[in-house]
Design goal:
Blueprint (H helix, E strand, L loop, with lengths): L1 H11 L7 E5 L8 E5 L2 E9 L2 E8 L9 E6 L17 E9 L5 E8 L2 E6 L10 E6 L6 E2 L9 E7 L6 E11 L15
Antiparallel strand pairs: 1-12, 2-5, 3-4, 4-12, 5-11, 6-9, 6-12, 7-8, 7-11, 8-10
Length: 192
C-alpha cells in the first residue's frame, strides 16, 4: 500500500510539506522590509493572503519609461547571512498579487554588495489574484553570481512596471524553507 502511494507521489512530483524557518507574514506592519528603486512600499491592512501585506506602488506616467522597484529586507538576520547556513535554508515561499496590470518581470534577488543572484518568477496571466510561489536554491534556473550565497546582505522581490498606468503590487507570507528540491519528472514544467 505504501509503495503504491510512494510511486504515485514520485510520478506526479508531490513535495513534502515545506519546513518553514523564518516568515514575514506582514499581518500588522512592514516587519523591517522597505522599498527600493522606483516603487514605494507601505503596509496594507486591507489586502493580503490573509489580510495584511506589503503594497508596492508605481505612480502613473504620461509616457511609459522602464522602471524597477523592489520589496527589500536588509535588516533581519532570519533572511540574511550565509546560505544554506545553520538553518539549512533550501529555498523560499511567497505570495504575490499584481493588481490589474501585470509587471514585465518579477525577480527574487539575493544580494551581497553589488552582486546579485536571482530567479525570475513566472507571473504570466496572474493579475488580480494571489499566486503562491516556491523557489528552491537548487533550481537550475537561478542566474547571476552564486558567490552571493556566502554572505547575503539583502533579499529583494524586484518588480519591473508593465505600463505607464499607476500600478499596485502586493507581497505576503515571505518565508525561508528547509525542504529538499525535487525537480519535475520528465524535465519539463507543464503550462498552467
Amino acid at each position: 500500500k505504501y509503495l503504491v502511494i510512494t510511486l504515485i507521489a514520485l510520478r506526479f512530483g508531490f513535495n513534502a510539506e515545506a519546513a518553514v524557518l523564518t516568515t514575514a507574514p506582514f499581518n500588522d506592519d512592514e516587519e523591517s522590509w522597505s522599498g527600493a528603486g522606483s516603487m514605494t512600499v507601505d503596509h496594507s491592512d486591507g489586502e493580503g493572503n490573509p489580510a495584511g501585506s506589503l503594497q508596492g506602488s508605481f505612480e502613473g506616467l504620461g509616457t511609459f519609461v522602464p522602471q524597477t522597484g523592489a520589496f527589500r529586507i536588509d535588516a533581519d538576520t532570519g533572511f540574511l547571512g550565509a546560505y544554506p547556513g545553520a538553518q539549512n535554508i533550501t529555498g523560499f515561499t511567497l505570495d504575490f498579487l499584481a493588481d490589474s496590470v501585470l509587471p514585465l518581470d518579477v525577480n527574487l534577488r539575493l544580494l551581497s554588495g553589488v552582486d546579485a543572484y536571482y530567479y525570475t518568477l513566472n507571473i504570466s496571466g496572474l493579475a488580480n489574484s494571489w499566486s503562491p510561489f516556491t523557489v528552491f536554491l537548487a533550481d537550475p534556473l537561478w542566474q547571476g553570481n552564486a558567490g552571493v550565497l556566502a554572505n547575503v546582505t539583502a533579499v529583494e522581490v524586484q518588480v519591473a512596471r508593465g505600463s505607464a498606468a499607476a500600478q499596485l503590487f502586493f507581497l505576503d507570507n515571505f518565508s525561508t524553507i528547509a525542504t529538499p528540491y525535487e525537480p519535475p519528472l520528465g524535465g519539463a514544467v507543464p503550462e498552467p
